[in-house]
Amino acid sequence: MLEANSHRLRRQRGTPGVMENSATVSHSRRERLKQATLECHRRLERVVDAHGYFVERASYGRWLLRSLEFHRAAFATLCPATLVCCLGPTAIAERLALFERDLEDLEVPVPAPSVAIAEPKQDAAQTLGVLYVTEGASLGARLLVTRARRLGLNETFGARALTRQALDLQSWRSFVEALENFEGNPERESRLVRASEQTFELAARHFGAPS
Ligand code: HEM
Question: How far is CA 138 from the centre of its chain?
Fold first, then answer.
């Protein structure tokens, strides 16, 4: 199964010259995904704004808790081969660790994972759909990090995860490259889009949307 998934992805992280090509070819899949999930993103933004997470440190602590739990849930059942191909072998563990350190900075207890480590359930198409949301968030993070700075938080205290996301645009570009190189067909495309929509819904629930 994993082999079947991974052969559809060509690993090209860090390959000089490939990026420009694939950006031209593949712009369309990312763009289609963006258009298909615009309303999901707007809803998520409204949820985040309504909860005032960036108003003070106490509410920002809740943002961190919910971000950690959202990421744990989103990453729980992804296809490992696709994950490694898109982000490398350590990115997920590093991101979760940064959220945990941010929580420790703010003296908020780090919760034990509530999502059991499960068997990978999602194939390459679904995994790309999930990662579109978790990795695309780095674009919005550039804006959110300025809000965190107003609370006196930064890359060495309280906003490690957000700052890393905001600065690490190479990861987003590598991901877009893998997304564009994926061999789709109508059935895989629709599962990819559906996985993105579901991941936005998952995020909205974690950040406090009424269910
Ligand atoms: C109030 C909270 C948020 C704001 C203000 C915000 C803002 C933005 C902005 C301005 C962009 C576009 C940046 C650009 O094109 O250069 C963006 C992109 C994106 N954001 Fe957010 N965001 C928020 C929360 C989130 C969250 C929590 C997630 C995911 C869990 C998320 C996922 C995405 C994705 C996937 C994109 C990429 C869309 C694309 O260009 O393909 N955002 N966000």
Answer: 8
Atom of ligand 1 nearest to the CA of 135: 35
Closest listed residue to residue 98, CA positions, set 174, 171, 156: 156
Whether 154 contacts 163, CB under 8 Å: yes
What's the domain range around 98? 32-206
CATH number for position 149: 1.20.910.10
Mutation to probe ligand 1, out of 37, 40, 45, 55 (largest number of atoms < 8 A from CB): 45
Residue 182 placed within a domain: yes
Which of 44, 51, 205 best tests ligand 1's pocket when mutated (most atoms within 8 Å of CB)? Answer: 44
Instruction: Give the per-residue pLDDT at 114.
Output: 73
What is the count of structural domains for the chain? 1
73 Cβ neighbours under 8 A, 6+ residues apart = 115, 202, 206
Whether residue 166 is contained in a domain is answered as: yes
pLDDT (tens digit, 9 = 90+) per residue, 159-197? 999 999 999 988 899 999 999 999 999 999 999 999 999
Give the distance (Å) from ligand 1 centre to CA of residue 139.
Answer: 6
Q: Is 34 in the pocket of ligand 1 (CB under 6 A)?
A: yes
Residues 136-147 have pLDDT tens digits of 999 999 999 999
